[in-house]
Design brief:
23 helices, five-stranded mixed β-sheet, alpha/beta, single chain, six-stranded mixed β-sheet, 799 residues
């Protein structure tokens, strides 16, 4: 009977598509009801057929349940460490659910909860629909015992998509071992305002770099797009592209603030990475952002979620609401008067699933019964969710907890990867007179000073700040520096505390040492997320979700401590552990060596010690521009021709000028910038064909030589400039980069292939076109340091 039905439905599907579409689709839709075989349980049948069969068997209540989420946190353990049957019944009430939130506890206990919940929902509910288990995975699986990688802004500074792909794969393996199915990551937001606290969660200010790093994460975590068109491979996770869209440039830099942005900028900048994630990464889920864009909150924005996401980008996954965002339509944005109205607006816009708990969407039942909502809208959302569940293989692979989950997570390999990424994320901003690497043979003592010197800082969406979970800079130096060199430590001050009583001890330590390694910066609330952060220190969070700044100097009395230590006359190496670009104008003028380490993850202390000692040559490049002051914000590199003023007569306090009366308009440190312990020489820029059409591919080659004495990694950057365009375009845009490793005197040829379609613009009619004309090609090691230039010509297609 089973085989007969399988053949029958394959034939019906063929009829539906080839001969009699209308009649065939009616048969496919209603046939399973009469056929009696439970087709959705048959893994040999097409996903479309399984979804159709299951939806036809579901009640309205069961459909709406698939559009909501519950948390495993509400399950309880008994005295033997097992999940109680009572708590399972109390949570699920014999009904299936769309998603389950993975609790932020130890991996062993998560695995137990996952197994119990999965078994209950498969065996104790009418249809046995498994849930999608959700977890935060921004820079590591958000669970105690998992590997903690550098924060996203540090990941972007590696300019190494291959490392990020490996990280995504590692996070997926760790999370899937505990029963997780979907990661609420990565972010495709642009970090263009350092006041905004969630800059630390972004890869870059540049849409191309964000797209490439984000796609690498998706491919590593979710699988190669060629495979994920049909299914998610074993030990991989569903990815969630967020936050859709333009969330990261809010008014005044304040989280959740409104965004006013034109369609051209919206498409050229903010939508670009999401389009790449969907079309090239095949991401399975998209999360709308909390904010409003041009007066319309994203969770009720039909144009964004239906016209662009579904129709233009052909997105086939499901739309997962940000936590509490549907209710915010009533409570925050004031576009609705009730939860029922919020549910209606969100559903009509195309939001498939409400998170983190059933609140607005349970009202959909009455709206359907009252005729205010067409059940087809419900079916559409449920179809999107179930399609992802079937493609992820959830119906066909029950979860069973592995023995000793902890032994399979946080392995030697994952820790090594965390250190590799940390090493490549650290940016050397200044190195006057080759202060670094340290000349260890000439040192008798080193002072290590600062509030972040002996404290791990991971950034938000981390479970802990416990030093036992990672390596501090003080600890890393003690392990790396020869024992004959004495290390003297003083905290000096807190991160946000105003108390300066620790300065005396810090000055004493500095004065009796040969040089000072000073570690300053910020801290982020662990866990984070709106309403679910917590603190375990005296210092208040200065960065992360909801922690925006009106000042970009290091917080608290740290600037005073830096100046006090500088006055001792000792050489100072300043290390920044933070989540946003700082105003370092004074430090740049007075401190001989500065390292930006961001939040470097659990192996950060080892990575930084390796760079200070010279065992590792720094190779990180800034993925965001550093402003001279908060008044210079924004200072992103891809500005328009008029973006840095007209007069070009920068002023200073001693000599006032124009554009800014007392300052230049330039950044302190530009996008793409970062020093090395060696030097590189660029030569022989070659372009295979200078005359192309919009359908061609630009092929560029350049030689790079290590002319220094030590091995090093270089990020070769390729920029374009559309010299004459019908609408204004940036003075330069990144369209290619390669990170290479070179031994002393070694030469490598770096090749780029860029589709001409990447050089397009949104014209006056808001059509995307590649306009004929001259384009400048620039090759360099930062957006300001361009070594080689040439040009190409885009011809009309019929020329």
């Amino acid at each position: 009977m089973g085989k007969f039905n399988e053949i029958l439905w394959i034939m019906l599907k063929w009829i539906a598509r080839s001969i009699i579409p209308v009649i065939g689709m009616i048969l496919i839709t209603f046939g399973p009801v009469y056929c009696q075989e439970v087709l959705y349980r048959n893994p040999g049948l097409p996903v479309e057929l399984r979804v159709s069969d299951l939806i036809n068997r579901m009640t309205l209540d069961e459909k709406i349940a698939q559009m909501t989420m519950l948390s495993l946190r509400k399950l309880e353990f008994d005295e033997n460490g097992e999940i109680t049957e009572e708590s399972l019944k109390k949570l699920f009430k014999g009904e299936s659910i769309g998603c389950l939130e993975s609790p932020r506890i130890h991996v062993e206990n998560i695995a137990k909860l996952s197994e119990a919940a999965d078994s209950y929902l498969r065996e104790e509910t009418r249809l046995g629909i498994p849930p999608i288990q959700i977890a935060e995975c921004l820079h590591g699986y958000l669970a105690f015992g998992a590997t903690i990688f550098p924060q996203a802004i540090g990941l972007g500074s590696t300019w190494n998509p291959e490392l990020i792909r490996k990280m995504g794969e590692t996070i997926a393996t760790e999370a899937s071992l505990t029963g997780v199915d979907q990661a609420l990551a990565p972010l495709f937001d642009l970090a263009r305002d350092p006041r905004y606290g969630r800059v630390e969660e972004c890869y870059s200010e540049d849409p191309y770099l964000v797209a490439e790093m984000g796609k690498a994460y998706v491919v590593g975590m979710q699988g190669e797009p060629e495979l994920t068109q049909k299914h998610i491979p074993e030990n991989h996770l569903i990815c969630t592209a967020k936050h859709f869209v333009a969330y990261s440039t809010p008014f005044a830099g304040i989280n959740l603030g409104p965004v006013e942005v034109g369609q051209r900028e919206l498409r050229s900048l903010h939508l670009y990475p999401f389009e790449k994630a969907i079309k090239e990464g095949n991401v399975y889920s998209v999360m709308p952002s909390y904010n409003e864009v041009n007066g319309i909150p994203l969770h009720r924005n039909r144009f964004m979620l239906r016209d662009i996401l579904r129709r233009e980008y052909n997105f086939k996954g499901y739309v997962f609401a940000d936590y509490g965002a549907i209710n915010m339509l009533e409570s925050f944005h004031k576009t609705t008067a009730s939860k029922s109205e919020s549910a209606l607006q969100a559903l009509q816009a195309g939001v498939d699933l409400e998170a983190p708990s059933p609140s607005a969407y349970p009202n959909l039942k009455k709206l359907v019964e009252d005729g205010e909502v067409d059940v087809e809208l419900i079916d559409e959302a449920v179809k999107n969710i179930l399609t992802v569940k079937f493609k992820a293989g959830l119906f066909d692979k029950p979860y069973f907890k592995p023995e000793k989950v902890s032994d399979k997570i946080h392995t030697t390999e994952s820790k090594r990867l965390a250190q590799d990424i940390a090493e490549e994320s650290i940016v050397l901003l200044k190195n006057e007179n080759k202060t670094l690497p340290l000349n260890l043979s000439a040192l008798n003592s080193i002072a290590v000073i600062g509030p972040n010197a002996d404290q791990v800082q991971y950034g938000d969406y981390s479970c802990t700040k416990d030093n036992a979970t990672g390596v501090t800079i003080l600890e890393g130096l003690k392990k790396r520096i020869p024992r004959n060199i004495k290390i003297n430590y003083a905290k000096g001050c807190g991160i946000t505390e105003r108390d300066t009583s620790g300065f005396e001890e810090a000055l004493k330590v500095a004065n009796k040492s040969d040089l000072v390694v000073m570690v300053v910066g910020g801290t982020s609330k662990i866990l984070s997320g709106i309403g679910w952060g917590k603190e375990n220190s005296n210092d208040y969070a200065t960065c992360g979700e909801g922690f925006d700044r009106s000042d970009l100097k290091p917080p608290g009395v740290q600037p005073q401590l830096i100046k006090a230590i500088h006055k001792t006359g000792k050489p100072v190496i300043l290390i920044l552990i933070n989540g946003r670009a700082y105003d370092l104008s004074w430090e740049d003028k007075n401190i001989p060596a500065i390292l930006e380490a961001w939040y470097p993850g659990e192996q950060g202390g080892n990575a930084i010690a390796g760079i200070l000692s010279g065992d590792i040559s720094p190779s990180g490049k800034l993925s965001v521009s550093f402003p001279q002051s908060v008044g210079h914000v924004p200072v992103f590199y891809n500005y328009k021709p008029s973006g840095r003023g007209y007069y070009h007569k920068p002023g200073s306090p001693d000599k006032p000028g124009k554009d800014y009366v007392f300052s230049s308009t330039e950044p302190l440190y530009p996008f793409g910038y970062g020093l090395s312990y060696t030097e590189f020489e660029y030569s022989d820029l070659k372009i295979e064909d200078r005359y192309l059409t919009e359908n061609d591919t630009i092929k560029v080659a350049v030689k790079v030589k290590n002319i220094g004495c030590v091995a090093g990694k270089e990020v070769v950057q390729l920029y374009f400039n559309d010299l004459v365009s019908s609408v204004t375009t940036p003075v330069k845009v990144l369209k290619g980069f390669k990170k290479i490793n070179l031994k002393p005197s070694e030469i490598k040829t770096v090749k780029f292939e860029i589709p001409c379609n990447e050089l397009g613009l949104w014209n006056e009619d808001m059509d995307y076109v590649v306009e004929p004309g001259d384009f400048e090609i620039m090759i360099g090691d930062s957006s300001q340091d361009i070594f080689l230039e040439d040009s190409i010509v885009i011809k009309k297609t019929d020329e």
